[in-house]
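Standup notes, protein team

Yesterday: finished cleaning the Ideonella livida set.
Today: Translation initiation factor Sui1 structure.
Blockers: none.

Input for Translation initiation factor Sui1:
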Amino acid sequence: MSRAPRPKSVSGLSGLSSLVYSTDSGRLCPGCGQAQAQCACAAQQAEAALAARRAAGVVKVQRSSKGRGGKTVSTVSGVPLDEAGLQALAKTLKAACGTGGTVKDGVIEIQGDHVAQLLTLLDGRGWTVKRAGG
């Protein structure tokens, strides 16, 4: 019966320390240790998120009111576009619905209950669209 190796114990706080800010380059990325201006981690994470959305292949549309003070919004998620493409699509959808909206974390939020209209618009663009959340 073999035991799993124990992790090395850290003596004191010196082993837990990592550089977070440098007066030479400003804030540092915790992932790669580079200055945030030269960090490649954020770009890699954005590319990975876009690849995951493209791999899913299904655009989901749902009505939601949680966390918005009872106001209803229609959300569109899983769209295989980059940030600029999402902004352009959101502008088109807002104009078609005649209402406001925004893009947050890769999800388009359109103010009001426009799920049926959004399903038709997105299906017309050739995407596989599903209504989510009842």
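Follow-up from PR in the comments: The chain has two domains: 20-50, 57-131.
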